[in-house]
TrEMBL record:
Phylogenetic placement of the source organism: Eukaryota, Viridiplantae, Streptophyta, Embryophyta, Tracheophyta
Domain Trafficking protein particle complex subunit: 217-473
Protein species of origin: Sesamum radiatum (Black benniseed)
The protein's name in its UniProt record: Trafficking protein particle complex subunit 11 domain-containing protein
InterPro entries assigned to the protein according to its UniProt record, in alphabetical order: TPC11
Any Pfam family: Foie-gras_1
PANTHER family reported in the protein's UniProt record: FOIE GRAS, TRAFFICKING PROTEIN PARTICLE COMPLEX SUBUNIT 11
């Protein structure tokens, strides 16, 4: 979307020209630009510069064929060079006093009128005085600009209605111009309709014979279609019509997906299609709903979009896919082309035409060579990576891990294609972690194949061997089924023979026999006996599929000094047998460690670097067959009371002689009780010590623990009980028993709030109709109008609470805002059961117009229900205060307030009055458009739609007579009121437009009885 010009990406803004009195141009320009809607200006210092306004071109001959559809600079010209209004500024001294000065004023005005007369530009004469009337100037300029764009649109619209055009190009052009003029006037509905008409007229031009070469003709049509669809999508998305915009986009891509053009330049079609998805994704990402209030009147199919089509990530992914398709087509076209050098003629000949989507003086052959030459200049891989990265991040934020992994895989392939092995490896690693977790073996095989090549590219022998061993151990297909190598990545098909080949390659690198076939020799890849390679396999390592190691003690409890048996079980899932040279078993006490040597290799079994006193055992054979267990049982003996724990199994594996590969199997403690005692000593000072009396057999002892949370965080309650078997023999060793319990600390009460407008009353707040929404925008309240503040308090604990009082503490002057009631003490405490929500209604009346008004802080005082917690003392029932600060609000004076009036109930067949009151609180005359929809439940009498004018500081009442035709709760006819000045609509909410209809006039007996009882008491 950044490639589009500014005049296309932003909505049109009216343009005015200031002539004369250059010293006030800055003041007037800043004021006009700050208003809503804003007005841009051209500043001419004196009247001699009025020739800068371009004159109107002579009308074209009706028989002359159109050279193109849209002029490239037409939109920019009307936004920056052709004003709608010219403001002639004269000083008050120029119009009073010297007759010569007055004559000069008249001359300047005549010259100015002669210049702008041909374009029907409006003229306003401004006399500059010391008294400020900037507001009146903006009103006059805005009204005249609106009239100019309305007249220009009507002038061209007459041609459309009379169909006074000689070609379809002019039909599309006229619709586009009228739509732009409607956008200038902020008439979004008419603009959307005319853009749609232009789009459909353009579709009829496909296949029509013209003087333009066929290839360039398709390029021009698709360029115009792209611009028209961009305009329609922008209007729909920024008005909150997301479903309609998505449906329109699907129809747009379906219309032009098959319009590929000539095979020589089919890559241009894929590039165009990729750009459609990219731009729509950016629009969907930046659009804000409920801004322009455009009614849904576009004629699109009623198919409901899928869930993914509402997310920009979906379109970024497809944009990258089509851009990759473009690269493939471009490479094929370049391979088939004989000459892709520069085209004949000078470089200046390949320039853009005056019409959008055209190139000047090019045949189709020249254009094809030019397009191929331009395609060679740019490399799209980095743009593809950027698109896939945005899609990957968006899917990840949506917790769509599998789709994100697919995008990550495509992104990593692009990194790999441009030899960026570092980023490729990082991305492949994240994808492989998901494939391992979910067991996608063939997909994991492909990714691991790429990771092997990335490790080769970054000169990492360790990573190369790890990925190779993991691939060799995968339980994938046999040789009976060999998939296509193209679908399996650089490692080839996942067959048993390929696994064995990768297995052998890994051990060749580990023994230093292979250099990974690099073009440039790198000594870091060479593994030798002086610097063996260490691989660690822990509980979460991916290499667990390569080698499994289990350790089992034959006795769970062993006396100090008594022998015990231990069995070590090893299993390999590699496709060929693996012979272990040396196996070392390590404990958490080093004196228990021992080494197992391979009896078939006596020169290796006679280990020379063993520490003195280290125990050495010899096994008859240490060969691991595929998927078969090798079990070794040995006797161990401890000299003191310990907790046996195998800390590490260290192995040296090989296929042949040199032991260059060292593998360690690490086992971690299962819980905190197995951690070293130093960690316990560090936290011991925070424990509370409690004395426990002596206990005989069968006795019990307990204590109560009271915990008070300062913050809602979970805690771990850890109890350690130390005791002796006999208190009279202190020489016995102390025994410890441990117990832990995790307790969640929860927030007892959570407070929320929301603001509600008075029933059947809707003020127009200008801050809510900004063209760009701010995520940090604060709520707005109407000045001097009643607003209800609803405060909700929810009991999130598991015990009943008692609510004592609620109040709002003010932070600023009490005169800025009135809050009723400000403090309420409940006469009887309210029982608040768990999960229940308590609501309190406050009345807020702002009295000060300011951008940030501090409302205050809600304070809720409560305590635990003492009837339930009788076992606790007074500290348990002490009152607590929960506070919730209300965010600052924006106070503004609404220019318009719409209120509805109707009786609370009605009777079947009896008419009643339904009134709509429009209050104008400004000093300006307000133009109001209103409409009321028909309802099947009522017979309606009154105007359905019209335009009215509401005088300043006055109220206009629209009265309707309704006759109900049904019973029960009926929806009143929906009323829509639109302000032309502010381009905003006010709609009645469904809740405020309901009336209950009785079959006959109701008689409320309860009220009658109360009235009778009251009369009888008075009579007595």
């Amino acid at each position: 979307m950044e490639e589009y010009p500014d005049e296309l990406r932003t909505p049109p803004i009216a343009l005015a020209c200031l002539v004369g009195c250059a010293e006030v141009h800055g003041l007037i320009t800043s004021h006009l630009h700050s208003q809503q809607p804003p007005i841009n200006t051209i500043a001419l210092p004196d009247f001699s510069k009025i020739s800068l306004i371009p004159p109107k071109k002579p009308p074209r001959e009706s028989s002359e064929p159109a050279a193109g559809i849209f002029r490239r600079d037409w939109l920019s010209k009307h936004r920056t060079r052709i004003p709608a209004v010219v403001a002639a500024l004269f000083s008050s001294h120029d119009v009073s006093g010297d007759p010569a000065q007055w004559l000069q004023v008249c001359t300047d005005l005549e010259n100015l009128k002669a210049t702008i007369r041909g374009r029907n530009i409006k003229l306003v004469v401004v006399v500059v005085t010391l008294s400020g009337h900037k507001g009146l100037l903006w009103t006059a300029v805005a009204d005249l600009a609106n009239a100019y764009y309305r007249d220009e649109g009507r002038r061209i619209k007459v041609r459309l209605e009379k169909r006074s055009f000689s070609s379809m190009e002019l039909n599309v052009r006229y619709c586009f111009k009228v739509a732009v003029y409607a956008e200038f006037r902020r008439d979004w509905l008419e603009a959307l309709k005319l853009y749609e008409d232009a789009y459909h007229a353009l579709r009829e031009m496909v296949g029509m014979s013209t003087k333009t070469p066929p290839i360039q003709r398709i390029v021009e049509i698709k360029t115009i279609a792209e611009q028209l669809h961009f305009k329609m999508s922008t209007l729909l998305l920024h008005s909150g019509k997301v479903v309609e915009a998505i449906t329109w986009f699907c129809q747009h891509t379906a219309n032009y997906r098959s319009l590929m053009g000539s095979p020589e330049v089919i890559f241009l079609h894929w590039e165009w299609l990729s750009r459609q998805y990219l731009v729509f994704a950016q629009l969907l990402e930046t659009s804000s709903a409920d801004v322009l209030h455009v009614p849904s009147m576009v004629s699109v199919a009623a198919e409901k979009p899928t869930e993914w089509e509402f997310h920009p990530a979906y379109y970024y992914q497809l944009a990258a896919s089509y851009l990759k398709e473009k690269n493939v087509s471009l490479e094929f076209a370049l391979s088939m082309s004989e000459d892709v050098g520069p085209i004949d003629g000078s470089a200046e000949s390949v320039v853009a035409s005056a019409y959008l989507g055209q190139f000047a003086s090019l045949t189709d052959d020249e254009y094809v060579r030019y397009a191929l030459a331009e395609g060679k200049r740019f490399q799209d891989s980095f743009e593809i990576i950027a698109l896939l990265k945005r899609s990957f991040e968006a899917y990840s934020s949506l917790k769509a891990e599998r789709t994100a992994a697919y995008c990550g895989l495509q992104m990593a392939r692009e990194y790999f294609a441009v030899s960026d092995f570092g980023n490729a490896k990082q991305t492949f690693d994240s994808v492989a972690s998901l494939y391992r977790r979910e067991g996608w073996l063939l997909s994991l095989w492909e990714v691991l194949g790429y990771l092997r090549e990335c490790s080769r590219g970054i000169s990492s022998a360790k990573d190369f061997i790890e990925y190779s061993l993991e691939m060799a151990a995968l339980p994938v297909t046999s040789d009976a089924f060999e998939p296509s190598s193209k679908d399996c990545g650089p490692a080839g098909p996942a067959t048993l023979s390929q696994r064995a080949k990768i297995h052998n390659e890994a051990f060749e690198v580990a023994r230093g026999e292979s250099e990974l076939n690099l073009k440039e020799q790198n000594t870091e890849l060479k593994v030798n006996s002086d610097y063996p390679l260490y691989l660690e396999i822990d509980l979460v390592s991916p290499l667990r599929v390569v080698l499994l190691a289990l350790v089992a003690f034959h006795q769970p409890v062993v006396k100090p000094g008594a022998p015990s048996l231990i069995t070590i079980s090893l299993r390999s899932q590699l496709p060929t047998n693996v012979e272990i040279d040396q196996l070392e078993v390590q404990f958490n006490q080093s004196e228990c460690n021992f080494i197992i040597g391979n009896g078939k290799k006596p020169h290796i079994a006679a280990i020379s670097n063993i520490q003195p006193g280290r125990r050495v055992e010899t096994a008859p054979s240490l060969v691991l067959a595929t998927n078969k267990w090798l079990r070794l049982t040995y006797e161990i003996k401890s000299g003191k009371l310990i907790q046996k724990e195998v800390a590490c199994l260290a192995q040296e594996k090989r296929n042949h002689s040199q032991p260059n590969l060292h593998v360690e199997h690490i086992s971690c403690p299962k819980d905190q009780s197995e951690a070293p005692s130093d960690n316990i000593q560090k936290i011991q000072p925070s424990f509370g010590l409690i004395s426990v009396p002596s206990l005989d057999v069968g006795d019990s002892w307990s204590c109560q623990l009271k915990i008070k949370w300062n913050r809602p965080k979970p805690i771990m309650l850890y109890v350690s009980l130390g005791y002796y078997h006999q208190s009279g023999e202190p020489s016995l060793q102390k025994v410890h028993v441990h117990k832990s319990l995790q307790i969640e600390g929860k927030t007892a009460v959570t407070i929320s709030h929301r603001y509600l407008l008075p029933f059947r009353q809707d003020p127009l707040l200008l801050s809510k109709i900004k063209s760009v929404s701010d995520p940090d925008q604060i709520p707005s309240l109407a000045l001097n109008d009643l607003t209800m503040l609803i405060v909700s308090a929810k009991n999130c604990s598991e015990v009943p609470l008692r609510l004592l009082s609620v109040s709002i503490e003010r932070e600023e002057d009490n005169d800025a805002c009135a809050i009723l009631p400000q403090h309420e003490e409940f006469r009887e405490s309210i029982v608040h059961v768990p999960g229940e929500e308590f609501k309190k209604v406050f009345t807020v009346i702002p009295k000060l117009n300011c951008t940030r008004l501090k409302i205050g802080t809600v304070c809720l005082r409560w305590q635990r229900d003492s009837r339930v917690e009788e076992q606790f003392d007074s500290c348990g029932s002490a009152s607590q205060v929960t506070k919730h600060r209300l965010p600052d609000v924006n106070i503004e004076l609404p220019p318009l307030v719409v209120s509805l009036e109707c009786p609370p109930h009605a009777t079947l067949g009896n008419p009643f009055t339904y009134s709509v009151k429009i209050h104008n609180r400004t000093e300006f005359l307000q133009e109001i458009k209103f409409s009321i929809a028909d309802s099947q439940s009522f017979v309606l009498s009154g105007p359905h739609n019209d335009t009215i004018f509401v005088l300043p500081r006055s109220t206009h009442v629209l009265s309707y007579m309704l006759v109900p035709l049904g019973l029960g709760s009926l929806q009143l006819p929906r009323v829509t009121v639109t302000s032309v000045r502010y381009s905003a609509g006010l709609h009645t909410s469904p809740a405020s437009s309901i009336v209950f209809v009785y079959p006959s006039k109701p008689h409320f007996e309860a009220s009658d009885r109360r009235e009778t009882r009251r009369n009888s008491v008075v009579a007595e």
